[in-house]
Amino acid sequence: MGTNVLNSKEAPGAGRETELSALFEEHPAAPVVKRLISETVFLENEMERLRDMPHVIRTKGGKIIQTSAGRVYGAYYTKYASAVKILSSALAKGADEEESPLRLYLKQMEMR
After folding, report:
1. Of 8, 46, 54, 62, which has the highest C-beta tally within 10 A?
2. Are the beta carbons of 80 and 47 closer than 8 angstroms?
């Protein structure tokens, strides 16, 4: 059986938020992405909840229509994908700020 979120001392996704925040701990963009991490974890939790709901239904006339849960899931997915892309980009840019061996070599060549 799953844990009851209402009785849990830890907020849903708190472990995930800690996990993502740890990636940006020493990163120069950490203060900026903190809120985005929180929003990303919120979207993950909401998408998990919506995943179990029906996304399409067939009417008596045979038409297939999207449910409200399906529309919200689609909107959340789009926002989640954008947030992950931004976080990945920020993480990659932080890694690029370290001097690569090629950049060090080129700087040495310029000094000569």
Report:
1. 46
2. yes
pLDDT grade for 28, boundaries at 50, 70 and 90: confident
pLDDT score, position 3: 43
CA nearest to 22, candidates 80, 79, 91: 91
As given in the structure block, the two tokens for residue 23 are 């990636």
DSSP string, 16-58: HHHHHHHHTTT-TTHHHHHHHHHHHHHHHHHHHHHHTS-SEEE
Question: Which of 95-103's residues contact partners 24+ apart within 8 Å by CB, and which partners?
Answer: 97/28
